[in-house]
Each structure stands twice: as structure tokens, then as C-alpha cells.
Amino acid sequence: MGRGGSRLLRLRLVVFALGLALGVVLLVRGQALVGGLVIAVAVLRTVFVFSYGRVRGRSAMTGSRARSARSARSGSRARSARSARSGSRSGVRSAGEGVQVAGTQPAAGVARLSPAGVTREARGALRAIARVEFELTARAIGINRDRLRRQFADGRSVAEQANAAGVAVDLVIGAVVADASARLDQAVAAGALSSAAADVARERLPVWAERLVTVHRAQLRRRA
Q: Which of 27-36, 126-135, 145-154, 209-218 has the lowest mean pLDDT?
């Protein structure tokens, strides 16, 4: 038993002694019922505390043994896995250098785009649908396309036109994102766009759509 356990035991004994002494005093003074109850409570409490301590001790030992067993099993599995991987590598090396594993190289005639190529493809896909999505904003706002184009040519962005019509800009941006995402899916299904480029384009859609809705014609001229 550790130092903390010894102190706790002494404290329990002191409490038991005080309860017993109080019960005896009450018995001596003629209060037999109360004194007997105090003594009985002190005894029962002490028995319960000691019993609970033994149960906790056994539980702690059982939990410690279970953790040790789990740790041992995990360590054994990890060692077995490392041994198996090492043996597999050794077997591959001993089978002969220069033997190529199937799937490590792309098949002849199959082009794999680099990350930069995927990014360029994604940008091209967004540029290809920009005009269609611009005209979609007219339906989202509730005006015809000719009016949208005229006001945009006069310097009013799609967002400003939406505000004038009482339509929330976020709703217009959301409509563009949803429609553009569907068009990207169609392009992938038709084989006109790679899945990797479509994923990159989808990640950019919220910012791209917001720029489409908030940009002014003068800004497009400066970029050109």
C-alpha cells in the first residue's frame, strides 16, 4: 500500500473511532436508540468503505492486466506485420532487379496530366461555361438576357442588377455554382473533361461564381 493509501486508511479509522465514541457517549447518557443508530451507521460505513476499496483494487488490477494483454497483442501484431513486409520486400528484390510491377507505369498511349496540366484543363473548362453561366444569372434575377447585357455594358455588375431587382446576391451565386457543377459532370460523362480537372474546377466554383457575379465590364477590359 502506498503512502496515500496509508493516510486514507488512517482517516477512515479515525472517522470510525469518532462515530463509535459518539455512540457510546449517547448510550451512557441514556439515549440508547440514537446511540445504537450512530454506532450501527459507523460500523456499516466502515465495512462499506473497506469493501469498496477492495473491489476497486481488484478492478484496477484486472484493468491493468487487460491493458497489458492488449499492448502485448498489439506489439506482437505490429512485429508480425513488419516481419511480413520485410519478407515481401526481400522476396521482390531477390526475384530479380528490373522486374516491373504491373500498374506502376501508365499503359502506352494513355496520357496522364501533370498537376499543372490538370489546373490548366480546369481553367479552360470554367472559361468554356462562363458565357452560359453569365446568361443564367438573368434567369436567376428574373430579367431577360438582353437587359442583363445592356446594363452590364453600362457598367452595372450582375450583383448590382440583382440588388436592384430585390434578389439576394447569394442566391444568384448559388444558382451559378449548381448549374456549373452539373455542366462539369456532363463534360466528364461525355469524356470531354477529366475527373481530376473537374474536381479542381469544383473546388474553385464558389470563388469563380462570386467573381462572375460581382465583376464589372471595366475590370474585364483591364484584364484583357
A: 27-36
Residue carrying the nine cell digits 478492478: 59
Decide if 169 contacts 162 (C-beta within 8 A). Answer: yes
Is the distance from CB of 83 to CB of 155 less than 8 angstroms?
no
**Which CA distances in Å does 204 have to 49, 91, 126, 149, 163?**
65, 46, 9, 25, 24
Parse the chain into domains and list their residue ranges. 3-88, 115-223
What does the block give as the cell for 174? 448559388
C-alpha cell at 11: 482517516
The answer to whether the beta carbons of residues 122 and 198 sit under 8 Å apart is yes
Judged by DSSP in three states, 145 sits in: helix
Q: Is 121 exposed, middle or buried (0-12, 13-18, 19+ CB in 10 A)?
A: middle
User: What are the b/e assignments for 56-66, b being 16+ CB within 10 Å?
Assistant: eeeeeeeeeee
pTM over 0.90: no
In one letter, which amino acid is 128?
A
**6-22 residue pLDDT tens:** 665 666 666 667 766 76
Return the closest-CA partner of residue 209 out of 161, 143, 159. 159
Cα distance between residue 176 and residue 168, in whole Å: 13
